[in-house]
Amino acid sequence: MPHSTTPPLGVGMVGYAFMGAAHSQGWRTVARAYDLPLSPVLAAVCGRDPGAVRAAADKLGWAAAETDWRALIARDDVSLVDICTPGDSHAEIAIAALEAGKHVLCEKPLANTVAEAEAMTEAARAASERGQIAMVGFNYRRVPALALARRLVADGRIGTLRHVRVSYLQDWGEDSDLPLVWRLQKEKAGSGALGDLGAHIVDLAQHLSGELLTGVSAQTETFITERALPGGGPGETGRVTVDDAAVFTGRLASGALTSFEVSRLAAGRKNQLRIELNGSDGSLAFDLERLNELEFHDHTLPGAEAGFRRILATEPDHPYLEGWWPPGHGLGYEHTFTHQARDLVRAIAEGVQPEPTFADGLQVQRVLAAIEESAEKNAVFTPVPAAE
Amino acid sequence: MPHSTTPPLGVGMVGYAFMGAAHSQGWRTVARAYDLPLSPVLAAVCGRDPGAVRAAADKLGWAAAETDWRALIARDDVSLVDICTPGDSHAEIAIAALEAGKHVLCEKPLANTVAEAEAMTEAARAASERGQIAMVGFNYRRVPALALARRLVADGRIGTLRHVRVSYLQDWGEDSDLPLVWRLQKEKAGSGALGDLGAHIVDLAQHLSGELLTGVSAQTETFITERALPGGGPGETGRVTVDDAAVFTGRLASGALTSFEVSRLAAGRKNQLRIELNGSDGSLAFDLERLNELEFHDHTLPGAEAGFRRILATEPDHPYLEGWWPPGHGLGYEHTFTHQARDLVRAIAEGVQPEPTFADGLQVQRVLAAIEESAEKNAVFTPVPAAE
Amino acid sequence: MPHSTTPPLGVGMVGYAFMGAAHSQGWRTVARAYDLPLSPVLAAVCGRDPGAVRAAADKLGWAAAETDWRALIARDDVSLVDICTPGDSHAEIAIAALEAGKHVLCEKPLANTVAEAEAMTEAARAASERGQIAMVGFNYRRVPALALARRLVADGRIGTLRHVRVSYLQDWGEDSDLPLVWRLQKEKAGSGALGDLGAHIVDLAQHLSGELLTGVSAQTETFITERALPGGGPGETGRVTVDDAAVFTGRLASGALTSFEVSRLAAGRKNQLRIELNGSDGSLAFDLERLNELEFHDHTLPGAEAGFRRILATEPDHPYLEGWWPPGHGLGYEHTFTHQARDLVRAIAEGVQPEPTFADGLQVQRVLAAIEESAEKNAVFTPVPAAE
Amino acid sequence: MPHSTTPPLGVGMVGYAFMGAAHSQGWRTVARAYDLPLSPVLAAVCGRDPGAVRAAADKLGWAAAETDWRALIARDDVSLVDICTPGDSHAEIAIAALEAGKHVLCEKPLANTVAEAEAMTEAARAASERGQIAMVGFNYRRVPALALARRLVADGRIGTLRHVRVSYLQDWGEDSDLPLVWRLQKEKAGSGALGDLGAHIVDLAQHLSGELLTGVSAQTETFITERALPGGGPGETGRVTVDDAAVFTGRLASGALTSFEVSRLAAGRKNQLRIELNGSDGSLAFDLERLNELEFHDHTLPGAEAGFRRILATEPDHPYLEGWWPPGHGLGYEHTFTHQARDLVRAIAEGVQPEPTFADGLQVQRVLAAIEESAEKNAVFTPVPAAE
Fold it and tell me: Could you tell me which residue ranges the Gfo/Idh/MocA-like oxidoreductase N-terminal domain spans (chains A, B, C, D) (predicted)?
């Protein structure tokens, strides 16, 4: 029931699992939290199983259900295609949607290969000339505390950068009863913790620092190599073809040293994305398990009263907070999708390309490819090709 | 667009400020997160200013707007009246709604006086015999970490209770430019930090412990006694007629010692509700500024490996989590309203009175009255009258 | 082996249990950490059991052992008498030592009764006119982080005080096998958690705020009322005659509200002294279980970048740190006794009375007496008599 | 004044700066905290400047002062030589001391080169056959919380190891006024953060896991390449010849992935050594800035009540705690030297070689050499030679 004078923006979503549910919450909520120039309408959701997609449409609040993503793209009431499928289908859907004249939001990682990501970026570039918008869903950029971190870095508050260290740790892979789900198969998922978690932290390290990685040195590992086949008989197992974990180091353009770690076997760490930046004038630290907090050390203060201060990123003048609650009333994980929707809707209305672009997604893909190459070559430092 | 086979539950809300926005988010979201026997429909919202309430209806997603709460109650498409106004109007609206055969959800505190709360409780009792449901909105009971805390206490995990200590600290009152808003006027707000914050922590202390307070000893204070009149000329001020802060101690039925503190002038504490329970077999600690975490000390473990453990209350088998995200993907403040809506909708469908009842709200009011009486009588220990 | 040109200061210590061991470590270490005008010499230690005191002297590093404290006081090589006995003997020993012309350091609480504390204070006053020094051992004043807190308050960094809240929680009393030790007997210990832990936090609240308490309202409780008699037969128990826990509220001279809690039955809290001060311009928070850290919120900073900052009180310009290690190399509990020794030795050399004085100790005793009186009188607000 | 019946152990210390002061505190204190079979006597300290070493002897409590370390070694009253000099002199002094029949404690890193470390290890091996003891001072092994961590790993409490991540961050190098001190010169210090901080964390990672590193991949950096010459004129600078920071990854024998980072330019991190181990059954986490705490996640507990628990490593049955204070009364940095002294004295009395041995120190040196080699070879994975 959006305001009658606000023009609608028809959204069609492909996929309705975890990411689809999270995106739906963003689309349903964004106009309730923010004043927007366009009113998102949850026009249709798409999935292969007719009964399941119909149930998902009802549950998540989509007006219609489709079983063929080409039909979804073709709908007149869909102006924006939101892609929430596994990575192996991103390129085909995104390129088709862009060629059909639609705006596109694509979940991360942008694609499973650099080649796909390049084709998508080219399609986005061409579409951009026709006034279309394409965005990749690195939603953590829009955690308020991390948006505040970016603002402090951009304002020069931490000075010359020395270090970025990031880890993203989960532990669901430690469950030995876990079957061989799609996330553990290379042909579906592209890679394991690296593509899933590593894509996030590579993007964040570059986004927060405002610099690109010039090269990386990496090791990867699959600790649990056999898993029960879903639907298989007792003792029937299949081979895990993706990594469980990766450690890598890198260099940013300024020469700053970086260290990275991702794992699905870090017992007790449920969704712990930690990032710290150290600069000549200050430092920033963040932990996704406490996502309303940013720690800031101002190194220009007298030493006797300096220290990491815990900023609750819930003040009215913090990024994205104008739509929410009074100070101290914290937000959650899903709010990042509302914020993403806000920025994307405004960008579409204004005709301005929002970040992160498909080119940004491609660049992350190139870093991931360099990581895999380094891991295969005894961790040797491997340059990340620059955008042409 | 809820599933067609689920019967609707028409909701009418009175008030659309902070609480109204939060409740709206709960109503809009609940059927998306949970499978419900009834589908909440945001039928109408009510406020006195026609233009403002119309805008609020559009913004918050309500189908219709009303300017007279009596008209809202009279609507056929409204089965549940959700009261989000200041405390001075709770009794009149709630009683009228109950008498009109509607279910009622009333924001806390239940009323501004014990007499009003008693009348409301009597009306709820009578309505209950007609199958109507009434509930008071102590939403913090439905923070997952606190619901987990209640479960651990009920399961005997902390043994015999010794202590409950609770503080609820904010700092917006420290702003000397803040004008004399309604929350600072006794005739509107009933009391200050005591009714606003104290009601929450009295309810929580009793709910988590499973015991009632038998008496209290209290001191209150108004630190900033004059504030600028809203709309007044330069230098025109009015008298603050409510408390800024209160400290009080009490006894639970078992003899456990309790300590409480509320303040609006605790610089740097934005919305810090801390609660700790110590028992013979364990302890629990919680901080609302980190609402996804519960700290649990199991005192039955060997001392050499015991300690407060930080449970991220985001596991699938934690209370309310079945509707949300994978482990470690935290929730926010507003989710408490979704959880409240879930439990209320299910209770209405099942015809079972949910907690907290109006009688629970009345009991909290009696504690608050005893606190005020004690504060007037030199902090002397003042019994809380038992429910008759 | 102190530097030959530094005059010695002969110390005689009475008592060699926990406090005696801690004071010994302070005396042995102080000249190694700081440059002092006098060199403390561990001349003699005193206890009733000849074998035990001789062993303690060897273990703790005292040159001689005495079995009669009067003999210790009479020794020519003892200029300073350090009293580490239970509270019931403080007055007699301290007064005798002062009358014998010795300087005195007396462990807290100064005495078990106000009358004793008054007599001691009078003796100290008289001795002061003869150039003697008397000091009471509230050692937590000399935790560097708390000395820094005092400095920040004195410098006006937190503005007008609103609140002080302090709790001191331990859990050794929760052990049901614990026998009826002297600390649980009123005639030895004077009181329970109140005198042992409460004395510390009353002193700290007043010291850090720079204000005195004008009155208090209190409740106390003994949860475990019978304990096995030490050396008794199976099932033989005796009555616990002191409190296990106390909650109390108070007022400081400025009108600031205070809340206090002490307990020996707070499962999982080993030695947790927490203190927080809120003022119009800032707040301070401290936890003794993390004693190298002080949290400081500067409320005069822009809200978007304010927050509690964790100051590691280990910088060279932090109080007492000039004698220790590089930044970040933390100190422990026992260092407070070294710092106390430093200040006392310097005060003796300079002939200047150090804080806390016996009069300070007496004032704390008056607060404790008012707490006990209030607890007997239904928690009614009970004034603390002012010093005449 | 140790107990007359305990035989003495004469200690001679070379060097009296930071490490010398810390070791002195350990030697002075150890017999006061623990019952020992030998009584350490602080016989003599050695340094080149006669006045300065005499003053240090007085200040730190050593009976005699020497200006030639050969003279110190030759003293009859010196049975144990404690080497606290910069790394370039370790080999010469240690070998001479061992050849002279003395026991040796050598500060870490064992040496500046692998060749030196090999010679020292050979000398220690030969001396060992004559009943002499040699130990290298990786004092952090003796932080009680880390000794507890080792115990838990050894007891199988974390299961099969997946990850070790360690960082050791300081920020004193960020001070642009810092002159070119010896720690910044390769010929004195051997390396920078790598040798100073990296030696600690390589040793800890191996010690806690109970495994050796099989290879490493590394990057190093010197961010501030020119510093003022000490005693030089305005603008006179010299070249910094050691690293400011290093990031490296590695493999343990079991295949567990490791990540490491050291820096002297991590603004706000004063002495932050963080280590975390993840295994199939649990995880451990530690931060040297909170050295009394160990975090332990028991992954075998039900998920709904699992979480990292904060164990205060101050219980009587925690390692080294029998000598100290009641629970919750924390220790500090310097206590590690007392613990080291305790274990060394007992080992000498019992004639049993204590850990870490010189061979352990040599192995760390080989890892550091492999790190430097990898850093020169584009971070390629470089094997650590096994001990022959």
Answer: 10-130
**pLDDT of res. C1:** 41
Q: What would the DSSP string read from start to end of C150-166?
A: HHHHHTTTT-SEEEEEE
Number of H helices, E strands in chain C: 11, 17
Alpha helices in B50-131 (DSSP H): 50-60, 69-74, 90-99, 114-129
Do D281 and A267 make contact, defined as CB atoms within 8 angstroms? Answer: yes
Alpha carbons B169 and D122: distance in angstroms, whole number: 64
- Tell me the pLDDT tens digit for each residue of C206-217: 999 999 999 999
- Identify the closest residue of chain B to D302 by CA–CA distance: B317
Q: Which of C311, C170, B303, B275 lies closest to D312 in space, CA to CA?
A: B303
Q: How far is CA A199 from the centre of its chain?
A: 7
Q: Are D35 and D4 in contact (CB under 8 A)?
A: no
Is there a contact between B157 and B281 (Cβ–Cβ < 8 Å)?
Answer: yes
**pLDDT, tens only, C323-380:** 999 999 999 999 999 999 999 999 999 999 999 999 999 999 999 999 999 999 999 9
| D272 contact residues in C (CB cutoff 8 A) | 328
Number of H-type helices and E-type strands within chain A:
11, 17
Taking each continuous run of H as one helix and of E as one strand, the counts in chain D are 11, 17
A165 interfaces chain D, CB cutoff of 8 Å: yes
Q: Which H or E run contains D249? A: strand D245-252
Q: Please answer whether residues C252 and C258 qualify as being in contact, where contact means their C-beta atoms are separated by less than 8 angstroms.
A: yes
Are B136 and B84 in contact by the 8 Å Cβ rule? The answer is no
Q: Give the closest of D22, D57, D332 to C335, CB-based.
A: D332
Burial B270-299 (b: 16+ CB within 10 A, else e): bbbbbbbbbbbebbbbbbbbbbbbbbbbbb
Tokens of B22: 């939060």
CA distance B67 to C275: 50
Cβ neighbors of C278 (< 8 A, separation 6 or more) are: B169, B171, B263, B265, B266, B267, B268, B269, C158, C161, C162, C163, C164
The whole-angstrom separation of Cα D169 and Cα D266 is: 6
Under the banding of pLDDT at 50, 70 and 90, the label for residue B188 is confident
Which one-letter DSSP state was computed for residue D139? G
Contact C257, B247 (CB under 8 A): yes
Q: What percent of chain B has pLDDT over 90?
A: 94
Element at C119 (helix H, strand E): helix C114-129
Q: Given 3-state DSSP classes, what are the helix, strand and coil percentages for chain D, each rounded to the nearest 5?
A: 40, 25, 35
Residue B10 structure tokens: 């028409």
Domains plus CATH for chain D? 8-139 (3.40.50.720), 140-344+355-382 (3.30.360.10)
Of B152, B303, B315, the CB nearest to D303: B315
**pLDDT level of residue C388 (50, 70, 90 thresholds):** low
Residues A78-118 pLDDT 10s = 999 999 999 999 999 999 999 999 999 999 999 999 999 99
Question: A2: pLDDT confidence band, cut at 50, 70 and 90?
Answer: very low
Which chain C residues contact residue D333 at CB under 8 A? 325, 329-331
Q: Do C278 and B266 touch (CB under 8 A)?
A: yes
Sequence-distant (6+) residues with CB within 8 A of C55 are: D3
- pLDDT score recorded for residue A1: 42
Q: Is the pLDDT of residue D357 over 70?
A: yes
Cα–Cα dist C385/C369, whole Å: 10
Cα separation, C101 vs A118, in Å, equals 90
Would you call C326 exposed, middle or buried from its count of C-beta atoms within 10 A (0-12, 13-18, 19+)?
Answer: middle
Residues in chain A, total? 388
